[in-house]
Structures are given as C-alpha cells and as structure tokens.
Specification:
CATH class of the largest domain in chain A: Alpha Beta
Radius of gyration of chain A: 21 Å
Largest sheet of chain A: 6 strands, antiparallel
Oligomer: homodimer
Structural class of chain A: alpha+beta
CATH topology of the largest domain in chain A: Chorismate lyase
Strand order of the largest sheet of chain A: 4-5-6-9-8-7
Number of domains of chain A: 2
Chain lengths: 254, 254
DNA sequence: TGGTCTAGCCTGTATATACAACTTGACTGG
DNA sequence: CCAGTCAAGTTGTATATACAGGCTAGACCA
C-alpha cells in the first residue's frame, strides 16, 4: 500500500464509510455522479466507475433517471443472500406459522456473552420459537440478541414478523458467520420438532454483525428427515435453466 | 431484449463463449485490449471494461505488462470457492491421507444415471474412498464420474491427488449444486468413519457441471461430532480481522 | 381541474486521448 | 559472456466529451 489508492477506490471507500457509519441509511440518496465531480474533483467517468462498482457489489442501487440509493439490505442479493425461514417456506408454496415459546430479557452469560462479544451481564433478549411449514415443525430457533441493537424486541409480535426479518430492519446486516452441524438433538428439542428418536438434527449456528459488532447469535435446529440446505453455484452471467431438480437457496441471513 | 446488448457485454459474451466451448483453455492468453480494439472495432476503454469485468467475475486473470489469461479454475476464488478436503485439512495444519476402497468402471443405473443426466448403461466410474485427518477418518467419499469426461480416472492414484483435485484439472468446474443433510448413517458407513451408534452424520450431496453437462455426483459422509461446515460472509472490501474464532471455509468444489 | 408536455437531471454507454507502471525480450557495450 | 539499458507491448488509471434514454416536477394548456 505504498502507492496511494486509485481515485475511484478512494471514492468508493469514502461512500462505504458513510454507509457503515450510519451517516447514509438504506434508501438514502447517494450523491450523483455530477455532484461527486464537483465535491471530489474527479471526472464523471471516475465517479461513474466508483458508483457502478458499488452497485455491482450490492452497496447501492442505481436507477437511470432517478439517482443512486443505499441498498436496502433486505434485497442485497449480491452481498449477502438474505435468508428468512418464512420467505423460504413461502417460496416453496407452503404456509409459514410460528409459536413463540420464550421472549425475555436476560443478562448475557458464558457462551452467549462470548459469542456476542459483550461483557458478562450485558442485557440481551432471548427468543425461543418454533417455525412450522404447513403445521409441521421445521425449525426450532434459539436466539440471543444484543439488547442495545433492538430495544423494541421485547414487544415485537414474532408470529407476524420473524426475528430474522425484524432484525434485518433494525440492524443492517453486514457480516455473517455460520456453522452447519449434524447431531442428535436432546429430548426436548426432538419433541418440539416432532422428531423420531433415531432422527438426526441439522443444526445451523449463526452469528451476524452490524456496524462492526455482533448483533445476534442463533442456534437453529431442523429435523434431518424433513429439511436440507441446498445451494446452487453458477458463474455470474450464466443464465440458469430453472430445472425442477434445482432448488436455489442460500441459507444466509440473520 | 429488444435493444441490442451494450458493446462491452457483447465482448464479454463472446469471450465467455470461447472459454465455455473450450476454444480458450485455462492459462491460455486472451486477446489484449489493443487486439480487441482492432478485431472488434471498439475503443480501448470498452475493451478494457469487458476484460476488467471478466477479471472481477473470475473468468480471466490480468497481469499488467503481460496480458490477460483464462483463469485456472483451481484458483477462481471469485467464481466458485474451490473446495478440496485435502486442502481444507492442510489449511488446518493437519495431515491428510486417504484409503481407496473402490475404483471401478460401471454402467450408470437409476439414481446415478438420473443425477448425471445420462442414459442408463452409460459408462461411469465409481469411486469410494475414506479421507483421514491425522489418522482419524473425516469423510467417506462415494462418487460417480461420467467416464467420457475423465478417461484416465481408472488409472489415477487417488491417494496422491484427491478426486476433486483431479477432476478440477480435467474438467473445468463451471457450476455446482449441493445439498446438506443430517442423517443417521448405516452401519457400514459408521464403521468406516469410526462413528458411535448414536452419532449423526453430516452428508453433503454434490453435483458439478462442466461445459454445460453434469460431470460428477458425490455423496460425502462426515462424522457429526468431528466435522462441521463453516462459512463466513462479508461484503467485498471489508477486510476481516482474522480472529481465531472465525473459520473461513466455503465448502464448494467437486 | 385535470391532462399533457417539456426542461432538466439522472444514469448508461461509447470514444479518443493521455500518462504511469509493469514485463519481456532484444540490443548494446564492456 | 554477462550485465545493463532500452523499446515495445501490456494493463491500470484518469479525463473530457458526446449522445441515448429514463424519470420527474413543474409549466402550460384545454
């Protein structure tokens, strides 16, 4: 990094910084190419390249004739494929419902505090709910949320809006980390998911960040006989024949 | 598609076509910007945009002063994160070894023929091997390969080069599809993987394409207590603090 | 009031030009 | 023969300019 970064990259960085800091919020208007030309003393082609690449990378969305706008993270398909169990179920043409088992405020302890990078005793919300696909339990969601990110979490009706969708609204998703495991779930979980004793569980453990800090930590149990994660990976530009035997689904989200 | 595609996109398409058809092979030189200017009657900036985007998308690699070259798929990190159990194990600092249980030529039947989109009776290779991480079995690989894609498959020493790595060499990976499931493996698989009777298996079922046709179909069983899939998703440009509790691994490959 | 039209802004693309930095191979002088 | 130099080709960036096409608010007219 001895040489200074190219001009267009500096432009991109400065706009990304404004978005990350919260100065520019989703759906906010980003300075137009001509405004950047004046403000930043660059040619329009340079401003165009910066904004075009930010568009390609999913940070902003551009509309000819209207302008450039900070992406609403709900639809940032390039950056992070947003995943929501309710959307996924509806995409399959089935109906989603959920049952809230717990929705409480707690102090972070042990594993949870460590995962969320907060001090022991910090306020977190604990959510426990079962998601159903056509009356059949498909996911047990055990989630902790840093309270300061989602003050209204305790009053939210999570049968109407899933925690994932709610969180996406209050805390722009920037980064996600997940692990997928197979295990034998304990008796309580098996009962909630109506699993046989000899049925394995597919467990997704997911942590997401917003503004550089962990926001939520979730353990998602699924019945192994009724749930699978599927992904389809194709080079950009390759238009897929949407064949019936391909389910496109990126299991990423909060 | 009423309006003609923009010129730079036509350029990209024509180069992608040359790559997909095999006219241009990995490491081959792609016409330089100035050559494209003459051949295609465009300005250099247009040729530059086409090649630059192909570079961003992972189709080609550009080296200032040397030229533009078709990507070696082994390192196409943008397009498809190439995954190889041996590399993964070595990245963890452990040693990989494998045991070949079967390496035979067969006629495709039933599920296999269907998955590989070939007629019943078409020649396929069947591979069955166990991968070890430090003497501990970590993956049972049960794979079928369309014979016409990999004629030398039967003579290959798969303890030296994993099937995944070998296939990546002979059939440029273009597209991948995978499903992840949790299940209780049968007794034979449990024995090979030294799993307890009450241990779940993480099963990855993967199909990959080259030149528009399915090449290989694999079922990969892993012991649930010793293996997990982990992924980390961050917006491009966000430089990660490589913290110890984050394992970066995209489980994609052939 | 209500519909239409247009001016002005925006993005999208294309071109010509310029200079910098890197790589390679050939040439040249010792 | 070797080492240094240089020229040619390549990518990378930056600018000025031009035109096409989408969108919108406000002017204008019926």
């Amino acid at each position: 990094m001895r040489n200074p970064k190219p001009r267009y990259q500096q432009l991109k960085d400065s706009i990304i910084a404004r978005i990350s800091s919260g100065e520019l919020l989703p759906t906010d208007r980003v300075p137009s190419e001509n405004e950047l030309v004046e403000e930043m003393q660059v040619s329009r082609m340079t401003a165009n390249r910066a904004l075009r690449e930010l568009n390609d990378e999913g940070y902003v969305e551009r509309v000819a004739g209207r302008g450039t706008f900070v992406s609403d993270y709900r639809s940032r398909s390039h950056l992070l494929e947003v995943h929501n169990i309710a959307d996924e179920i509806e995409r399959r043409g089935n109906t989603h419902s959920s049952l809230v088992l717990r929705q409480s405020k707690q102090k972070a302890r042990g594993e949870v505090a460590k995962a969320l990078h907060v001090e022991q005793g910090t306020a977190v919300f604990h959510l426990l709910l079962v998601h159903y696909e056509n009356e059949s339990p498909i996911q047990l969601e055990d989630r902790h949320v840093v309270a300061s990110f989602a003050p209204g979490c305790i009053d939210q009706d999570f049968t109407a809006v899933t925690p994932s969708a709610y969180l996406t609204g209050v805390a722009p998703l920037q980064e996600a980390e997940q692990a997928v495991r197979a295990s034998i779930a304990n008796k309580g979980i098996r009962a909630r998911l109506e699993m046989n004793d000899d049925e394995a569980a597919l467990v997704v453990i997911r942590r997401t960040w917003s503004r550089g800090r962990p926001v939520t930590f979730a353990r998602l149990h699924h019945p192994g006989s009724r749930y699978e994660l599927t992904g389809h990976y194709a080079p950009p530009g390759t238009l897929k024949s949407t064949s019936a035997d391909v389910v496109q689904l990126e299991n990423i989200g909060q």
